[in-house]
Amino acid sequence: MTSLAPDARDRLYAECARAITTAGSECEPLFLARLALLLFEQVADEARCRQALQDALHDLPLPSLSATPSLQGD
Protein backbone atom coordinates (compact mmCIF):
# COMPACT_ATOMS: atom_id res chain seq x y z
CA MET A 1 0.00 0.00 0.00
CA THR A 2 1.38 3.40 -0.94
CA SER A 3 1.15 6.44 1.24
CA LEU A 4 0.92 10.16 0.53
CA ALA A 5 3.85 12.41 1.24
CA PRO A 6 3.15 14.65 4.26
CA ASP A 7 2.98 17.83 2.14
CA ALA A 8 0.55 16.20 -0.31
CA ARG A 9 -1.58 15.00 2.62
CA ASP A 10 -1.68 18.55 4.02
CA ARG A 11 -2.68 20.02 0.65
CA LEU A 12 -5.42 17.44 0.13
CA TYR A 13 -6.70 17.91 3.69
CA ALA A 14 -7.01 21.65 3.11
CA GLU A 15 -8.69 21.15 -0.26
CA CYS A 16 -11.10 18.64 1.25
CA ALA A 17 -11.97 21.09 4.04
CA ARG A 18 -12.65 23.81 1.44
CA ALA A 19 -14.85 21.43 -0.59
CA ILE A 20 -16.84 20.52 2.54
CA THR A 21 -17.34 24.23 3.25
CA THR A 22 -18.42 24.81 -0.36
CA ALA A 23 -20.93 21.94 -0.13
CA GLY A 24 -22.46 23.58 2.94
CA SER A 25 -23.57 22.05 6.21
CA GLU A 26 -26.87 20.79 4.77
CA CYS A 27 -25.11 18.80 2.03
CA GLU A 28 -21.98 17.85 4.00
CA PRO A 29 -23.03 14.24 4.81
CA LEU A 30 -24.03 13.57 1.19
CA PHE A 31 -20.83 15.15 -0.12
CA LEU A 32 -18.68 13.04 2.20
CA ALA A 33 -20.53 9.83 1.33
CA ARG A 34 -20.18 10.58 -2.39
CA LEU A 35 -16.49 11.39 -2.00
CA ALA A 36 -15.93 8.16 -0.09
CA LEU A 37 -17.74 6.13 -2.75
CA LEU A 38 -15.68 7.72 -5.54
CA LEU A 39 -12.46 6.98 -3.65
CA PHE A 40 -13.60 3.41 -2.91
CA GLU A 41 -14.02 2.96 -6.66
CA GLN A 42 -10.41 4.09 -7.15
CA VAL A 43 -9.13 1.69 -4.48
CA ALA A 44 -11.25 -1.17 -5.89
CA ASP A 45 -10.64 -3.37 -2.83
CA GLU A 46 -13.63 -3.89 -0.56
CA ALA A 47 -11.59 -5.14 2.39
CA ARG A 48 -9.25 -2.12 2.29
CA CYS A 49 -12.23 0.24 2.03
CA ARG A 50 -13.93 -1.39 5.01
CA GLN A 51 -10.69 -1.13 6.98
CA ALA A 52 -10.41 2.56 6.07
CA LEU A 53 -13.94 3.12 7.40
CA GLN A 54 -13.01 1.46 10.69
CA ASP A 55 -9.72 3.37 10.87
CA ALA A 56 -11.57 6.66 10.33
CA LEU A 57 -13.94 5.89 13.21
CA HIS A 58 -11.17 4.82 15.60
CA ASP A 59 -10.30 7.56 18.10
CA LEU A 60 -12.41 10.08 16.19
CA PRO A 61 -11.69 13.42 17.89
CA LEU A 62 -14.41 15.73 19.07
CA PRO A 63 -14.71 18.93 17.03
CA SER A 64 -12.42 21.66 18.33
CA LEU A 65 -13.75 24.93 19.66
CA SER A 66 -12.38 26.67 16.59
CA ALA A 67 -14.59 24.48 14.38
CA THR A 68 -17.83 25.61 16.03
CA PRO A 69 -19.50 28.94 15.38
CA SER A 70 -19.10 31.37 18.21
CA LEU A 71 -22.16 32.63 20.00
CA GLN A 72 -22.96 36.30 19.69
CA GLY A 73 -21.54 38.17 22.64
CA ASP A 74 -18.61 35.80 23.19
Account of the protein in words:
This protein has helices at 6-23, 28-43, 46-57. It has a domain at 10-49. Helix content is 62%, strand content 0%.
Throw out a few tags for this protein.
74 residues, mainly alpha, 3 helices, 62% helix, globular, DUF2783 domain-containing protein
Report the β-strand fraction as a percent range. under 5%
DSSP strand tally: 0
Compute the CA-based radius of gyration: 15 Å
Overall average residue pLDDT: 89
Cα(first) to Cα(last) distance is 47 Å
Largest beta sheet, briefly? none
| Protein structure class | mainly alpha
Tally the helices: what do you get?
Answer: 3
N to C succession of SSEs: HHH
| Helical amount | 55-70%
Which blocks of ≥5 consecutive residues have pLDDT under 50?
Answer: none
Q: What form results from the Cα inertia axes?
A: globular
What's this model, at a glance?
This protein has 74 residues and is mostly helical. The chain contains three helices and no strands.
Describe the protein's topology.
Blueprint lengths: L5 H18 L4 H16 L2 H12 L17
